[in-house]
Structure formats: C-alpha cells, structure tokens
Fold each of these.
Amino acid sequence: MITSIYNSIKQSLKSPAHTYCKILAQNTEKLRRKVLEEAYELIKETLAKPINKHRMVNEFCDLLFHITMVIYHHKIHPKQIKQEMFNRKKPN
C-alpha cells in the first residue's frame, strides 16, 4: 500500500502539471502542518459518538498519504519501512 502511494507521489512530482504533491514538496512547513492536521482529524473521528467509520477511513487515508509524502521527502523508501516492521516482529 505505502509503495503504491509512494510511486504515485513520485510520478506526480515528475509530471509537468502543477500538483498538490509539488506544492507540499516545495513547502515542508505546510507538509508538517498537514500531517499534524490529518492526525488530529483521525483522532477526533475516534472520539465521535457514534463513530462514523467512513469518515475515519477517509482521515486515515489522508494521514497515510501525507506521512508517505514525508518519507518521500526524506528519501526513505517503503522497503525500509517494511524491513523495520519485519524487524519488530522478530522474537527477542
């Protein structure tokens, strides 16, 4: 999943068109604020009564996209994330 988003970001940044990804890539402060905003919105949805799963999924997807933009910006490949997750599953 993250690899797919990562590759979409990569393609969008290579595109000659003016894209949302390019706006975020050129303004890291805006990107950081978006990550915080999306994390807050996801947590806020978990507190809603009743919980709206559709909105929660939407907020999760927004957060995942923006976090993936962060790792792309810092040249962290999804394979590194996958490896770290694998390492965490190993018994001590």
Note: The first helix runs from residue 2 to 14.
Amino acid sequence: MRKRHLIRIRRRGLPHPAPGRIVFLLLRKAAAGIASILSLPALKPVVLTITAVFLLLAAVPYGVSLLSKGDADSGGMEERADFQPAELPDTVDLYRTEAERVETVDFEDYVKGVVSGEVPSEFHREALKAQAVAARTYSAARIIKAREGGNPQAHPSAPLCDSTHCQVYRSPEELEELKGEGWMDKGWKKISSAVEATEGQLLYYKGRLVEQALFHSSSGGKTENSEDVFASAYPYLVSVDSPYETQATHRNEKNSFSMEEFSEKIKTAYPQKDFGSVTASSIYVESRSQGGRVDEMKIGSAILSGRQVREALGLPSANFTVEASENTV
C-alpha cells in the first residue's frame, strides 16, 4: 500500500475577502475614535457627532464621517466646507447570476436584500444598521465608478451583481423560500427596520465618498493594509488588531492534503513554474504581510504568493500556518 503523506494547512481566519467582504464592526464608546453623522438641510451641510465608531478593515482614522441627507438634530453641529455629497439613485440595475439577466430593483430595497444576504438577522440592531451603511456606501461607489468607467467585465450589463463578487443579494421571495415564512415575519422586519433607520446614510472620508466600504466575517485577529491586497492604497484601510473575533466561525480551521494531491494542485494551477521535487522540507512560508497573511511561500524550488497558494488549494484565506514533518505538512 502506498504511504499517504498529508499536507495540513491551518487557516487563521479569513484574510481580505473577495471584494465586498472586509470586517465591519460597530463599537459603542470605542476608544479608537468618533464617527459623525452629517445631515443635509436645504441650504448647507451640517454635522452631528455621535458616540459610535465604525471599524472597516482598520481603526477609522480622523476624517471618516457617517453622512446623511436627512434632517439634523439641533445640537453639536459644525459646517463641512469640503463635503462633496454623492447622489443616490432611486433604483439599481442588478445582474442576477443564476438567471443571467438584469433586474431593476429599488435602491433601498436592494440594501435590505444585501443585509439579509450577508449577515444573520439575529445580529444586534446596531450591527445591522452598520452593515446597511457599509452596503449602501459600497453600492453607491460601484454605481458611480460604473458611470465614469463602465460596468465590470464580470457583468458588463450592470454595475452590481447578486453574488460575492459584489455583495450577496436575496429578494424577499428568495428569502421566504430559503428561510421560511416565519423568518419574514421577524427577521425581514428587523433588517428592514435597521435599513430604514439609516436611509440615505453613507460613509465619507475627508468629505468624499468612501470608495472601499468593504467587510468580511473574520480577519484572523488582524486586518490588512489595503496596498497589500489591492493595487491602490486607501488611507482609511490600514492594518490593525481586531481582538473581537475570538469566537469567529472561520478563526481556526484545518485543511489536509496528501503530498501527491498537494503537489498536483499546485503544479496544475501554475504549470509555468518549475517546482522540481516537492518534499516536506521544501514547503514553508518565507514572509508575511503586516496583517499576518502569507506574502511568499516556498514550494519545491519555486516561490508562490500567499494568494496563489490560497487559490490553488481553494482556501478562503492566505492567513495560514504550515507545519511540516516527514509524513505531514
């Protein structure tokens, strides 16, 4: 019988997700900073400070504000001369991946469908409200980008889709079929109420709409610098500790592969690479990013990025450790 060599890779939480999936936490009285709500009356913008903080891949830096077109309360206001409000559409064209067609959806109903598709309704109301602001901001930025440069290549007929490529969206009919009529009476009403409570609210950085209002389910304890994930650096997306995820679903997971299977997956994914003989002693992490993700990994005589390894093995994260011995890795 052929001896089985196992490759065991331990994931330390989801890294930087596919677009639209970076950590989003709402903290009460957080020491990291203060978020602001800006409302727009008929003549000029005003800002109302509140004791709440959004954590979006990073501790929110000074200058990030939560802005709205609603009426402002009468206290603690100041003018923002640099504010450039984004116009929200009444409807959004949405590419439905399974049906392979474009559907026009009321914009705020779309936000409700995204919150329902991305997070459980059991979440605290404030968390649902935070998710709504993130989803609305992300959508608005993608729509504006599409107007200026065209729709994404993945779905050229619409600026947004209903999958994790953008944000997961579920219609009320789909949710009722998926979760049941009882959920619609409670879960849908709870999410709808949270979305309606934040209607029109968007995230801005130094007066401009946040381009990357991303979120994910787990960071593995530390978020990532945007420049280590994307081609561009965003000053509000920097690496910070995220100690609030000790019970996160994906914090500690393991994947095992036989040596033959591991080698085959890697070599098939990157046939242009010369790996030579792949043995346990030739499989190790060479470097990591500031956020802890694998930057470079040695496999045989070749070097791959953490993202390449992740994609080749079908892992949801590049934040993993590799333990090698004579028979297992």
Note: Residues 24-78 form one domain.
Amino acid sequence: MKGMNGHIIAGTSICVDYWLWTPDQKYLHFLSHLHADHTVNLKSTFTGYIYTSPFNSWLVKRWFKIKPELVVSLSVGASHVLYEESSQSHFSVTLLDANHCPGSVMFLFQGKFGNIFYTGDFRYNPDVLEHP
C-alpha cells in the first residue's frame, strides 16, 4: 500500500507519522492514528519512542507488537512538556481530539521553532471551536 511518509518539523528531531529511520537517528515520533496510510513502514522491530493518545498507545502495542516500554501515552486535551535533544530545548505538545476515528489526535507543537499545528486526518465538529 502506498501512503504518506509523515512529516518532520524543519530544524528539529520531531516527526509525526514518520517511520523511515535508522537506529542512530534520535527522532521524537508522534502517532496521530493507526490507519494504514499513517503507519507505512512502522514495524514490530521499531526501537524509538512513540508518543500518542491513550487509545492509540494500547492499539499500536496490540497491532504492531511494539514493545510497551517504547510507547508513551499522552493525555488528550492537556499540554505536555518534552525535551528535544537536537536543539537542547524544551517544547510543548498538546493533543486534541481529531474526531476522525477512535484515538485519532491532532498535535499542537510549541517551541523555539514556533507553533506548528499538525492535523493529520480530522473531521470538523462545532465543538472544536469551543475548545481551541
């Protein structure tokens, strides 16, 4: 199946739905949801950390047999502060419900690099305007 190759935030090691990597790369991997076009090249041999929603955390371990200690569950609707090694700085990521499929999220990244809103796949719902 041909699919997307994900995205890397320019000048950082932060990537979303991007699973082309080598063990020497120190990416921070974020997973928006588990549809096939967003998990191209994700395999059970993956050895990086994956940051995602609680539902996706459970599902990626079950479907892809990713080692549980590599999957980090982040609460939806809350901001989380993480450290990005390549820039030696902290950034925040907020997960927002994408209303696309169970567990699907959008990511708002904020740091030295600016503000980046990654939507992945989402379905508009008027409630989104109530919780910007």
Note: The helical segments are 54-64, 127-130.
